Amino acid sequence: MFDQVVSSLPAFASFFVTAVVLLAVFLSLYVFVTPYSELALIRAGNEAAAVSLGGAVIGFALPIAVSVAVSHNLYSMIGWGLVACVVQLLTFTAARLALPTINHNIPEGKLASGIFIASLSIGVGILNAGCIA
After folding, report:
1. Any idea where the domains of the chain sit in the sequence?
2. How far apart are alpha carbons 97 and 117 in whole angstroms?
């Protein structure tokens, strides 16, 4: 039983490290695309920013998890990770266009806007993940 686990550790490590790197790249791009500094807002106790960014992380992680489960190699996983990244960034951009005041609401700590962005990100992430499977 443990022999199978031990022999699978290199594959696990390569997929896990790749997933973490993809997540870091996504977070860097997401924070760059948003017109406010989520990390500074979160450090200052802004709940709307925390909820919004948390939803984006979950919305990105869901398709990554599915891509790990269905991919037979790292290249396929990375490809789906790039697709998930673009989809999440487009989701935020669409939300900004639909609700232009969201650019001000999140920094002002309006939790409803943070919940909306988080819900949208998670919902799109679930759809994205389902399309990969």
Report:
1. 2-132
2. 12
pLDDT digits (tens, 9 = 90+) for 68-107: 999 889 999 999 999 999 999 999 999 999 999 999 999 9
Mean pLDDT of the chain: 94
Query: What is the DSSP secondary-structure string of 61-118?
Result: HHHHHHHHHH-SSHHHHHHHHHHHHHHHHHHHHHHHHH-TTHHHHTTTT-HHHHHHHH
Instruction: Please say if the pLDDT value at position 3 is more than 90.
Output: no
The Cα–Cα gap between 43 and 56 comes to: 18
Which amino acid is located at 93 in the chain? T
What's the DSSP call for residue 48? H
What does the buried/exposed string (b/e) look like for 86-124 if buried means 16 or more CB atoms within 10 Å of the residue's CB? ebbbebbeebbeeeeebeebbbeebbebbebbbebbbeb
